[in-house]
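User: Can you predict the 3D structure for this chain?
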Amino acid sequence: MKILAFVDLHENLQALKRIKEKSKLADLIICAGDISNFSSNLNKFLNELNNLNKETLIIPGNHEMDNELKKLCGKFKNLKYIHKDFIRKNGFLFLGYGGSGFSMEDKEFDNLAKKFKKIIKKDDKIILITHAPVYGTAVDYLPWSKEHRGNKSIRKFIEEVNPILAVCGHFHENDSKVDWVKNCRVINPGKQGKLLRIK
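Assistant: Here is the predicted structure, written as structure tokens:
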């Protein structure tokens, strides 16, 4: 399966154009949050995504409100809101968790992780979608502070369940960076998106 993943679009029309071009090669689209700037033009950009006519999994970033984004996604046939939720497709299990991305430890995610573990089946190939970057990787390192500032709760979950892929964002400095946690490929696909093959 080919996935087009992107994050932190923030109403960038040039980046949206690239997303549209790349979407022609994708079977599925993932948006890991911050499609808008504090919900500005949110409905317009969701409509643009819907018109790509590809199933699109969406979580909120720190620029979208959970309930608002969920309600708007419900208006569009191709958009699937999976914040704190999951969807199975072709043997893959997609787990979603959006939100601010600023916390290094997240009790809410820790509680959700317990629920996610209960629905994971032995043969599931797991794809984790979060807005917050994964701690201790290339996607959470901030060169200006010389620190890793990602989410340790998400890192712990990855180490425990070993997804095949983790898509995240939030730190624009790390647009397009890739790293690994055990056998899990961790990527910040950036605003222009990355085509990823999963199998």
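Residues 5 and 30 are 5 Å apart (CA to CA). The chain has one domain: 2-197.
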